[in-house]
Structure formats: structure tokens, C-alpha cells
Amino acid sequence: MTVTEHPVTADEPPVMDFQGGRKTMVAMKKWTVDIYIDEDDAGRTYAEARLQTGAPTRLTGVGRAKLNPADDDIPEIGDELATARALTDLGHRLLVTAAKDIEAVTDERVRLDT
User: Fold this and answer.
1) Does a structural domain hold residue 114?
2) Which Gene3D superfamilies does the record cross-reference, listed alphabetically (predicted)?
3) Mind listing the pLDDT tens digit for each residue in 61-90?
4) Cα torsion 10, 8, 76, 49: sign
5) Which of 8, 48, 63, 65 has the smallest CB count inside 10 Å?
6) Which helix (H) or strand (E) holds 16?
């Protein structure tokens, strides 16, 4: 399946390309990821990526970055690294959760490749 993004405005539904055919998404769900970032005085940055799906279970990914003493202190770079790592961790946790949910339904071991 190939998915291509198309620019949309706030008042129109997203349109996706599925194997060459365009389809307007009618029953759309909205999931939100909130990113929280903090940095201490020692140049360590911490980020959390919190997924909100509307379900009672919430997933949180964590990422960290540390300033190399030989580098210039540019806080935005630490924010970017910690956030990227938090989002990667969140994605992995979501795959693990999906695998466990599939196993619960099928009673078979599941291996999901990223």
C-alpha cells in the first residue's frame, strides 16, 4: 500500500492515495501526540511523546539527549534529538502493543517487522 499525503484545509476531509486510487476518508479517527521537553543545567534534554487515542490505555515514549562538552550549546538540537528518540520509542511501544493485541485475539505468537 502506498500512502501519499495531500494538503488539506481544516474544513475538508483528508484524501489518501491507496494503490493509485484516491479515497476520501469518511470515518476518520484522530489520535494526538503531545510532546513535552525539559532541559537541565547540565545540558541533558528529556522528552516525552504521549499518545492520546481516546482509549483508556495511554502510551508514552521517552527520549534523551546530552550535550557533548566539546560542542556549542544549541538547545534546539537537544530538543530535536530527544524528541526524535521519544517518537521512535513511542512507535516501538505501539508496535509491541499491537502485537500483544493480535496475540490475545489469535492465541498465536506474532512478529511484527518495522
Assistant:
1) no
2) Rv1738
3) 999 999 998 988 888 999 999 999 999 999
4) positive
5) 8
6) strand 15-18
Q: Are residues 51 and 82 in the same domain?
A: yes
**C-beta separation of 73 from 36 below 8 A:** no
Task: Report the C-alpha gap between 73 and 46 in whole angstroms.
Answer: 15
Total of domains in the chain: 2
Give one DSSP letter per residue of 21-70, joined into a string: EEEE-SS----EEEEEEEE-TTSEEEEEEEEE-SSS--EEEEEEEE--TT
pLDDT in tens, 86-109: 999 999 999 999 999 999 999 999
